[in-house]
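Design request, C-alpha cells follow.
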C-alpha cells in the first residue's frame, strides 16, 4: 500500500485555510480532527433531501431508518463488534458514559469497588466517581509512572483489582501524553474477578484499529469528531449486557437494545456523517470487506504517524528549554505530545503558536488526574501537540522551529 498524504489532505476542505498568509497547521487533532469531505456531503445531502424522525411510516421516515441502520453497521465494523445491535449513539462520549454509569450503579452494592486509571480523560473518571458515591461503592485509582514514559503501573493495577471489583474503566490511549494501554491485558485481569471493562477509545480511534472482540471489552465508547466526522458519540456494549441491564430512559423509548440506550432523538444528519467517516477510513485500506479495509488502513495510518512521531521526538530532544512528558520514542504511544517551554506559560505558548498559524492546545485537556500526577494542575497544565494522518513532515519541522524560537525567548527572560 502507498500512503499519499497530499491526496488525503485534498479530502479535507479545512486544510486549505491560511492564517496571516501561512497555511494553517492543525496540530490540535486530540481535541478534534477536521471533517472529511464525504462526511460533510453526507450530512448536507440528508438535510437537503428532507428528513423525518425515526419511525415515520412514509418515505423520509424510511430513509431515516436506513440512515440509522447504515451507521450502526458502519460503527460495528469500526469497533469489530459482533453486530449492529451492539451499537448505540449519543451526543458525545461524556454524555454516554454518564448515562451508562447510572445504569451500572443500579447493580452495585455498598462495599463494591470501581477501578479507574489516572491516565484517562475525566469523562472516564468522574462519572464512575459519582456513580460509586451514589451506590456507596469505593473508587480505586490505578497510577502511572512519569519516570517510565507515563506508562500504566502494573503493580498499581494488580493492587487495585480484587474480588469486590465490579467495573474497570480504562483508557485505550491517553489524550494527554499519548500512552497506549494494553486493554486486553487489563480485561483479562478484570474478568478473572468477574468485573466488567469499560474502554475509553476516544483518543485511540484515529490512530489504532479498535477491536473490542480482540480486547475482550464489555463496553467501549468513542467520539466521531476525533476521527474525521461530526460531533456524535458512539457506544459499543455486549448484546447480552445491553439487553439485561436497565437503561436510563423515558417510558416511550425502546425497551430493547440498542435503542433503549439512546436518550431521545438522535442527530440523523450526523449519523449520515458517521457512516461517511468510517467509509473514508476504510477507503485508505485494502481488502474484500469494510472490516478488513479498516484493519489495513489503520496499519498504514500508524506507520505514517510513527514516522511523524520519530521526526518530532528527535527534533524536540535537541531543543534546550523544552521538556517532553511521556514516552521518548514512538513505540507504545500515539503521536500526541505534552510539552512545557521553560519561562513561558502554556497558554502563552499556545497563543503565540496560534498567531503563527500553528494550532495546538494548552491546559489540562480534561485529563485532570494526569495533570495532578505530573504536578501541573495548578501551573496551567501543559502544551499538547497532536498529529494525525493528514499531517506532514513539513508541519513537524514547522512546529519544531517555532518551539525552538519560543524556548530561546523564554530562556532569555
Amino acid at each position: 500500500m502507498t500512503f499519499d498524504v497530499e491526496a488525503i489532505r485534498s479530502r479535507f476542505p479545512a486544510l486549505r485555510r491560511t492564517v496571516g498568509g501561512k497555511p494553517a497547521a492543525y496540530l490540535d487533532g486530540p481535541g478534534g480532527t477536521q471533517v472529511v469531505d464525504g462526511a460533510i456531503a453526507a450530512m448536507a445531502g440528508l438535510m437537503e433531501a428532507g428528513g423525518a424522525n425515526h419511525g415515520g411510516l412514509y418515505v423520509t421516515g424510511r430513509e431515516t431508518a436506513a440512515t440509522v441502520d447504515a451507521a450502526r453497521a458502519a460503527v460495528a465494523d469500526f469497533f469489530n463488534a459482533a453486530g449492529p445491535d451492539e451499537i448505540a449513539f449519543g451526543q458525545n462520549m461524556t454524555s454516554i458514559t454518564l448515562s451508562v454509569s447510572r445504569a451500572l450503579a443500579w447493580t452495585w452494592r455498598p462495599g463494591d469497588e470501581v477501578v479507574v486509571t489516572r491516565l484517562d480523560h475525566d469523562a472516564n473518571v468522574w462519572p464512575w466517581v459519582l456513580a460509586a458515591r451514589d451506590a456507596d461503592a469505593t473508587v480505586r485509582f490505578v497510577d502511572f509512572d512519569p519516570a517510565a514514559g507515563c506508562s500504566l503501573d502494573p503493580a498499581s493495577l494488580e493492587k487495585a483489582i480484587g474480588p469486590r471489583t465490579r467495573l474497570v474503566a480504562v483508557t485505550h490511549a491517553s489524550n494527554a501524553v499519548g500512552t497506549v494501554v494494553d486493554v486486553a491485558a487489563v480485561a483479562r485481569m478484570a474478568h478473572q474477578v468477574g468485573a466488567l471493562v469499560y474502554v475509553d477509545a476516544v483518543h485511540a480511534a484515529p490512530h489504532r484499529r479498535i477491536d473490542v472482540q480482540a480486547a475482550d471489552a464489555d463496553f467501549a465508547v468513542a467520539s466521531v469528531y476525533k476521527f474525521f466526522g461530526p460531533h456524535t458519540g458512539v457506544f459499543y456494549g455486549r448484546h447480552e449486557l445491553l439487553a439485561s441491564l436497565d437503561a436510563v430512559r423515558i417510558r416511550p423509548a425502546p425497551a430493547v437494545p440498542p435503542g433503549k440506550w439512546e436518550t431521545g432523538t438522535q442527530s440523523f444528519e450526523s449519523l449520515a456523517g458517521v457512516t461517511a467517516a468510517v467509509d473514508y477510513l476504510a477507503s485508505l485500506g485494502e481488502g474484500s470487506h469494510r472490516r478488513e479495509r479498516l484493519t489495513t488502513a489503520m496499519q498504514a495510518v500508524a506507520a505514517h504517524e510513527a514516522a511523524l512521531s520519530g521526526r518530532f521526538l528527535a527534533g524536540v530532544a535537541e531543543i534546550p528549554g523544552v521538556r517532553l512528558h511521556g514516552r521518548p520514542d514512538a513505540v507504545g504511544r500515539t503521536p500526541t505530545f505534552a510539552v512545557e517551554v521553560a519561562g513561558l506559560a502554556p497558554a502563552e505558548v499556545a497563543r503565540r503558536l496560534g498567531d503563527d498559524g500553528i494550532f495546538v492546545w494548552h491546559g489540562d485537556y480534561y485529563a485532570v488526574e494526569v495533570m495532578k500526577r505530573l504536578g501541573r494542575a495548578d501551573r496551567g497544565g501543559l502544551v499538547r501537540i497532536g498529529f494525525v494522518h493528514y499531517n506532514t513532515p513539513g508541519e513537524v519541522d514547522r512546529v519544531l522551529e517555532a518551539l525552538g524560537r519560543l524556548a530561546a525567548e523564554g530562556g532569555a527572560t
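Comment from the thread starter after seeing the answer: thanks! The longest strand covers residues 165-171.
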